[in-house]
Design a protein that fits this description.
Elements (H helix, E strand, L loop, with lengths): L1 E12 L2 E12 L3 E6 L5 H8 L9 E4 L2 E2 L8 H5 L2 E4 L11 H11 L5 H14 L15 H12 L6 E5 L7 H16 L3 E5 L3 H6 L3 E6 L2 E5 L2
Parallel strand pairs: 3-8, 3-9, 6-7, 7-8
Antiparallel strand pairs: 1-2, 1-4, 4-5, 9-10
Helix pairs in contact: 4-5, 5-6
């Protein structure tokens, strides 16, 4: 099943055309890298996938939603079905790890306290952070914070995970661990799209590779 289906899409950033005539189909279960130099449109493309940047030209479908006609009021509905991982973590710094995750679950409609506690416990275990729920984000290393961000992204068991430079602020060893974790999540059934310029990690953990270059999105053969 196609989770993403873009045909002849033009991507604009503040009225500036950054990607021209994008044709992109991504199926369930794929592990995809998007690479390219700074300013070539990688993040802009990702933003169109969760509705941060509108699409006015071409045909674009994400998880069954027509992104060219999707109303602002329905964006939260789409985003509940996605997991988004940012380079700069975006954790709530005034509350513990546990409270960060609880906040997301409640905001996305979870009500049963037992179910909430169980889900938090499950995702923390999955990302290797089961003993850190009581800690504040500032007490964690960069790699640990990124693991919590991944835990947050998978709370609602999304079919599609979008990761914008998830290893950008991390050393190589920690970056390897994070990429490996994302690969495990993909094997468990989620499609994962990673923006990265780290070719070393791509060589260690191969996947489908796309490149933003000269205002085009190109498939890179292995």
């Amino acid at each position: 099943m196609k989770l993403i289906d873009y045909k002849n899409v033009n991507v604009y950033q503040e009225e500036q055309l950054v990607l021209n005539n994008v044709n992109l189909q991504i199926e369930e279960g794929e592990f995809v890298y998007i690479t390219g130099k700074v300013g070539t449109g990688k993040s802009s493309l990702l933003k169109t996938l969760y509705g941060e940047l509108p699409i006015s030209e071409g045909e674009a479908e994400v998880m069954g939603y027509d992104m060219t006609t999707l109303k602002q009021s329905r964006l939260p509905e789409l985003r509940k079905k996605l997991g988004i991982i940012f380079q700069d973590f975006q954790l709530l710094t005034d509350r513990s790890v546990d409270a960060n995750l609880r906040f997301v679950l409640k905001a996305t409609g979870w009500k049963n306290k037992v179910d909430i506690n169980q889900r938090i416990s499950d995702v923390l275990q999955l990302v290797g952070m089961s003993t850190k729920g009581y800690k504040m984000p500032s007490e964690l290393s960069g790699g640990e914070q990124q693991r919590i961000v991944i835990a947050r992204a998978i709370l609602n068991r999304p079919k599609l995970i979008l990761a914008d430079e998830p290893t950008g602020n991390l050393d190589l060893e920690t970056g390897k661990q994070i990429t490996e974790l994302l690969m495990q999540i993909c094997k468990a059934g989620s499609t994962v799209i990673i923006i990265t310029h780290n070719m070393q990690l791509i060589e260690m953990y191969p996947g489908r590779m796309l490149k933003c270059e000269d205002h085009q999105l190109k498939e890179v053969s292995e």
